Queue: 3 jobs
Job 1
Amino acid sequence: MEAPPVTVMPVTGGTINMMEYLLQGSVLDQALESLLHRLRGLCDNMEPETFTDHELVYLLKGQQGNPFILRARRSLSHPTAPWHLRYLGQPEVGDKSRHALVRNCVDVAASHSLPEFLNEMGFRMDHEFVANGHVFRKGAMKVVVTKLSRILVPGNTENTERLSLSYLVELSVLAPAGQDTVSEDMRSFAEQLKPLVHLEKIDPSKQRH
Amino acid sequence: MQQREEKQLEASVESLISRVAHVKNALHGFIYKLENEYERLTWPSVLDNFALLSGQLNTINKLLKNEKTPSFRSQVIIPLLLNPDRDEDLAKLTEQRVPVFSHEIVPDYLRTKPDPEVEEQEKQLSAEAARIGPEVAQKQIQTLNKLCSNLLEKLNNPRDDRDAESAALRQNKPSFNPADTNALVGAVAFGKGLSKCRPPGPVAPGHPGQGPMMSGGPTLQQVTIGGGSGQQAGMGGPVAPQQQGQPGKMPSSIKTNIKSASGSMHPYNR
């Protein structure tokens, strides 16, 4: 149930297929302050933006092996804001020299009846977590520093426990397919964050085992 | 002879006036930028402005040191007529900064000696210098020279030496843990450590409690334990039908967990 690769699909109209370019790393709690200072200096000048989100990951098991995954996210700090539904495809296995992880990405906003709707459609919630942290922006690049927490009682976002003593740092860009200059820019930005954080292309399938 | 000197004086004053006008314009633009475009200003552009001013001041210095420039110190400016009334021509000439050529402006604009406070400080410093005696002064000069040359040497030396020391220092405080990176990426990508049937996988460091004794059927168990902190301990008991659908591998892990749970006697066992 994966979307076919971009080059095969004819562009008949509607939205452009967006790809997400991603680099990930982590930073320990004690180095968080210095990382935030550095990001505040490097990124665009704006008010520091914090967020608290609750993300639920839904799976749809088809006849084939790979389940179809959808991610539903809502803001706990802005409860009336719409839900955000995201589909992330498999990482594109292009040339190994590309510096960032590239995958197909579809984002839509949804109303608050999203979880029931997905359940009715046949999706089942696989896992959920609470993410809070800071967002920075530099041009088209977005840097997110997140603290992930496990939800102990399903549906209860108050009772959480931290997953690890580190913060996850992600550098991402949403761009139409085929723009490889984006990964160059991302790599030079990632250089500026060394040695505090090593942002690199981490293949999620390798982490499974 | 006289005429040549006069001509030189005039020429140097003209060039001095034009250089000072450049500095004034640069300052004007810089102040305007600072006051009005405050949000959009970046540090490199502020540095550019400062560099421009410093360059212009340098040119003025060079101009004054030029041998063609007669010594301005030997010239004297004497006000011939002081008038407390407003002078329109003067006001226009000075862009409204000096509207009246009166007694008040003379001490400021025609000053040749330093300000009284500055004069006081200079007198104190010279008295201090005379007091300490020549040998002590010489020793102080030598220490200062040594410090400066040490610093210059450190700055001019090849970067490799410096980087090696600083890199060694920084090794002691790593700011990230690659194992944590993998754990977090796994959690975000497919719920490693998060989903219902948590595999005995990455355990967050520093968490008190036993090793990973996870099991399936946490929904019911969590309710009974009351969502306690720390990890869920292994438990046996019936794995009741789940509220949500499970991924295909669930059945096998349930069997395994029941096996392992019977081996351990856990106080929270149902």
Job 2
Amino acid sequence: MAAPAISIPAPSSKTESYVDNKRKEDIRQANIVAARAVADAVRTSLGPKGMDKMISIANGEVIITNDGATILNKMEVLQPAAKMLVELSKSQDAAAGDGTTTVVVIAGALLKQSLSLLSAGIHPTVISDSLHKAAIKAIDVLTAMAVPVELSDRESLIKSASTSLNSKVVSQYSTLLAPLAVDAVLSVVDPAKPDLVDLRDIKIVKKLGGTVDDTEMVRGLVFDKKVSHAAGGPTRVENAKIAVIQFQISPPKTDIEQSIVVSDYTQMDRILKEERNYILGMIKRIRATGCNVLLIQKSILRDAVTDLSLHYLAKAKILVVKDVERDDIEFITKTLNCLPIANIEHFRAEKLGYADLVEEASVGEGKIVKITGIKDMGRTTNVLVRGSNQLVIDEAERSLHDALCVVRCLVNKRFFIAGGGAPEIELARQLGAWAKVLHGMGGYCVRSFAEALEVIPYTLAENAGLNPIAIVTELRNKHAQGEINAGINVRKGQITNILEENVVQPLLVSTSAITQATECVRMILKIDDIVTVR
Amino acid sequence: MAIERIFKDEASEEKGERARMASFVGAMAIADLVKTTLGPKGMDKILQSTGRGREVTVTNDGATILKSLHIDNAAAKVLVDISKVQDDEVGDGTTSVVVLAGELLREAEKLVAAKIHPMTIISGYRMAAECARHALLQKVVDNKEDAEKFRSDLMRIAMTTLSSKILCQDKDHFAKLAVDAVMRLKGSTNLESIQIIKKPGGSLKDSFLDEGFILDKKIGIGQPKRIENANILVANTAMDTDKVKIYGARVRVDSMSKVAQIEGAEKEKMREKVQKIIAHGINCFVNRQLIYNFPEELFADAGILAIEHADFDGIERLALVTGGEIASTFDNPETVKLGHCKLIEEIMIGEDKLIRFSGVEMGQACTIVLRGASHHVLDEAERSLHDALCVLSQTVNDSRVLFGGGWPEMIMAKEVDELARKTPGKKSHAIEAFSRALLAIPTIIADNAGLDSAELVAQLRAEHHKEGCNAGIDVISGSVGDMAELGISEAFKVKQAVLLSATEAAEMILRVDEIITCAPRQRENRIHAWKMICTSFHQGGNFVPILTS
């Protein structure tokens, strides 16, 4: 038995009233230190002037990113409490999509304060309870600061999307990407369910070549594939009738293993002829419905098309795209407003989709297929992301995802709030004031948490190369005078009214960051032992 | 006088005092490990797996902690077992039972040191346990007759159980959830029909109870997304071609058209099967296995909602709640029992789409959807809610209720003390010790909350000297409080199970006077090791082979 047995301490005598809590304190301290180390690792990537991290993965691949969730996800942390912070960033990603760095930095700051509270001899559950109370109060404060926004107010939506993009590598393209993100999200909002946005309805296609400038939103469908064509096949079809098929245009194949016995020369000829007829028969049926574009689902069992069938399809002037993934079928059928066809017998005109134009376009080195002008198009959207190298494209995709999430947050909860550290400093001020009216240890704890929240403006200033202490004190001063929207203007390097600077973010991102960070910190505080189990 | 070795190499034997000490120490170590999780201000533990992925679990649940430990001490294993049994039987009190057993052994150790025979201690403990149970029985409150009061009892029990868990901040919300769910069961203790779905995102407060069944699957493409008055066929069948399952079977033909024919025939078979299924007069088909493109299209054409790849748990439960049977052949439509429900529709929770079956045949069924920040939170929330549901469903059957907050322990301790005074002989020492062990529970609750336990327990004891006292430890304000006013209640069944199984476990460990450890299996030589296992079986040894990779 290689498994370590639990260590059995000597039975401590119960007669003494003093309980030895050394081990528990040690565990708690170790947890907090580890979690803070994680928070410190991503701290420098916060804000518009935050730095990027280069992560080289074990298999030699390199990622350059500014996205907290991605950095933490790739960091292979082992310490359990540190893992919880990684999880925290993931869940912020799921809930709000943006603010993944912020949430970890806040959690780190709260832990730092908790550590000093613990060393002052305050019981962890007291700290945990006050933290909960403070979080509820913080949400109230944030909600009071929020400004309502209408979905018709495109300008405001773009402002908040560009705030999110400003901290990324692709910040110089924010004027392009922000409206794109807003339009993409708004185009998939179903008027029947105005509060719901399913980001799966937005498909991001990445294609190497060009620059991020060339990124575009396509009202229609884009495939990162070539048209499969033999000599003379069409690569551009107008007034397309599109069929999504889940069968293959190739010689028949049974599920049971098969073999064709050829005993003489004449038979061989016949078989070849039969194959030809079989395929021709299929194509004739397809042609009969007027279909001129085929999208063929990928099959692992047999070839989607053979040279022979391609040849005939080319003659029939049918454009073919093969190897469509099964997972994409739903998206495609939804977009084209058609039904998938699983058998040649069911090939009927009413199952087809219609589009004005299907064409193969060459983009950079490769080629893509674009379907535009779809009749009765479903509520879906495609975004074609371009970039000069794979790293940029990947980062652009991640940034775009964040921007999409930001817009989605605004659709879900139609409020936004000032950025640039303004909400945090206001929280710190109001919580600090509130702490003074609280009784007992709660008040002491809440005051520490209020101070902890100042980490966001502090870090923003620090990352921007400003003097953090001067900036934060000035900010405090401004807020004390009632300018609740005063924040750090990183571009100008001074304090301004941040709402006027168009630096806004959705309320949901801030509230979710506060609740998730406190929930995580409370969980870490409540832990007093790490037990190794099987 | 030198005695030949009786045992094989490496096998060891511990006798008498040493054996007893070893089991005491092991049991107490286990009890000490979990005792910090006791009570509303108990702490959590991180369980770090040594397995692949080094997964991390954060928990406060005694049973979960204990069952995942590596243990190499016989007595400790007994305690883990009683915690498991407590979990299966009543669902809650898994920590209390271990802590009480540990305290009983701690007291027994002192008595043994004072040269009192283990058997005397055992008989004393037995008398004390019986007396304690009586004391509880006299104090129970039963509100079964009054539905209103009974419900408020249930709410209190749920809140008390949840207050020591992660859900404590939203305990009102979850207590209501749990009580509603259990009340729907109408007295059955079958928790199967309460389904718990975990969806990350949102906060714990967003969790809700849904009167119906939710399946975390997708509806096939091009099929109706909403069906009223659904007839559901639940099946476990392969929807691809019925393959000839003989190895090496193959088709031998001499022309391409024949291959096409066979392919056509295969398709035809699939179609036939689908036709047969449709002939059941259904409009919803749920299959455990994959439904391929071709049948999916056929179903779509027939306007039938088909759900593929519903996991095993999913279809069993679905069959249970809709009142259908799981079918795998479709030749006799009249014999197959279909499931029914009023409405099937797609709903969206967080980012995911799920399918809801509402108005199901079995009215007891419901689904609790848990939302929370991360997987850790959700897993722990599920465990906590499960505890609450267990306790509540037990209480619905046995509606006797006690106060909580250390109140039952004080009542028992008082009665046991009385008994000790009346009992002549050495036994009285053991009975007294039992009462001290009982007092340890309120002491630990107070200790965990960072309160002055000695002071509080002394105050509590003084309070309990009065008749009809409801005093217990109010952890929130850190003083002695009235449990009736604070609304802290516990189920009698849980307390009784804690008392009796802890006593039994302590008794069992006390009886031990020799521990024989069998020789470990040799690692280097597998064949040799196997021989050893075989021989040890032949010799009637209790060698438990442990599979190591």
Job 3
Amino acid sequence: MADRGGERGGERGGERGGFGRGFGRGGRGDRGGRRGGRRGGRQQEEEKWVPVTKLGRLVREGKIHKIEEIYLHSLPVKEHQIIELLVPGLKDEVMKITPVQKQTRAGQRTRFKAFVVVGDCDGHVGLGVKCAKEVATAIRGAIILAKLSVVPVRRGYWGNKIGQPHTVPCKVTGKCGSVTVRMVPAPRGSGIVAARVPKKVLQFAGIEDVFTSSRGSTKTLGNFVKATFDCLMKTYGFLTPEFWDETRYVKTPFQEFTDLLAKPTKGLVIEATVETVEA
Amino acid sequence: MAEEVHLGLPGPWAADYREKADHYTTKIGGVPDWPTGDMGIKPEMLQCSLCGTKLCLVAQVYAPVVKLNIEERIIYVLVCPTPECGPRPQSWKVLRVQKCRNVEQTEGDGDELGQGTGPSSTSVPEEQIDKNKSHDINDDDFDLDALAEALEQAATLASNSKKKNKSKCANAPIERPVLKEKPADLSIPVLPCFYIYYDKEQYRVKGAVGSSSNEFPLDKEMTDTGNYEEEKWDGEKYEYDKAIGADRTFLKFKKRLDAYPEQCFRYSYGGKPLLAATKVQDAGTCRFCGSPRQYELQLMSPLLYFLHEAGKGSSNYGPSNWTWLTLIVYTCSKSCCPSSCGGRPCGCCWDVAEEEITIQEDEAV
């Protein structure tokens, strides 16, 4: 165990240097401890970002200001730099690096699987899983995948609507493999009542109080984490009475920022005021 | 599988978007540099098949094939500039212009312009140019190109005056048409123009294992996680990359792009294209010789981004409505000459062949 931990540390240290990635920047001093994750310090790389997709071009130009505009139209986000630009306070943390082995004729082939959770502790969270032959590559890839999968988390109240939302709006449950995780609204001050691993995800999501209950083989922590993440994704999928009003559709960013109708798109084009989604 | 892939990286912008270079230059946008003034191209080849507007040049790539011993070979990618046609695949056209192989005659034959072979340009694909140095090299060669142009123009003037003298002296004053350079056709819109320099793609699995000197903040964390050894992350197996919005093919595409984020096109004669989506159209066969088509080069999204940035502010601008991720060009695997003088390759005339292009779209739009 100890030597595996040591190897992990060595690889992680190397990963820091490796993040320079050809832009020539080695150790960047502005990164704090890994606990807090890496923040900021990426402006130079973002300036060099050449967007690939149309959505990326719109974000680069600054035509899209909030990530909620992307969530509203369920547009697929294909570039992680989009998320970096739109959600500035994103922190990341490596939850686990575990070796996975495959039996080949020439022995066993070991690869490393990294689980990374990113979040801004204020309603956005993402989870990334990546396997690679080296730990540094796995961590780097997992961070990118986590950013690509950032989702909004809906928070609500347990009782009186005083102050800011602090818990999940209703009972939701998520499933992955055999593990199901159920989240139940909790009164203020309860804290996150969950196992250590999903607690981390919930902290990154910005949920302050919640009761959880899990079922299934929670020993498979990979599935446990994914089940928690699935549960958080469902918070905005739950139809509550606030959403009973008729939806007023808005133009998608592609339609809004183009001069002419190039192609008929699938979305509706009724322009109206934006509907505010209250907690 | 290790084929070499050459990347076309952006070089300097042209001072004037309509400036002419020679047909050995690889560039994006601008005016197409045909090898001879009068190519004999049928006008409908240069027109959009949907709306009939004259096509404008997107990319001109000097692409000799060493294996088949063809040195004079250029590929032109053309598109209809109107915003409505741009996104449709039928408005894109690829022309392959090459001299019939076999003879290496001097070009002075039918060529009044006296276009000599240009200085060895930066665009020889097999060269491995160091990225840092290539800016300087490109600047120098760019000046040489301009110098060559100036020399050509001077030669033109000289030959024109000589011709007039000759025709006076000759007994039968045949009215020879003076082939001046055609005045720049200002009616066709022209895309912003910049030049390309080549670099070989060095793609390896990046395993940056640095020193363990910056271990300090990690030690604390490791002791923390050491306490939780009773958590066993059991039963983990290899998992393919998955993201909510992007599939595995696109993630691999993006990874290659991130290694060289400014690549405008990828060139690999006969190699495998880098796909952005798994659905690929069949390339078909060459319509002249029937041999199968093979992949040669593909245009990449950063090119679109650069054109878009350069054209910002101008209305009715074609590239603003393009949404493709990559454009894959397939050419005849034998690089055939569709026409030859009297059935035998003569080495004096230029052949124009139309090739196939497929678009891989960003389907989110």
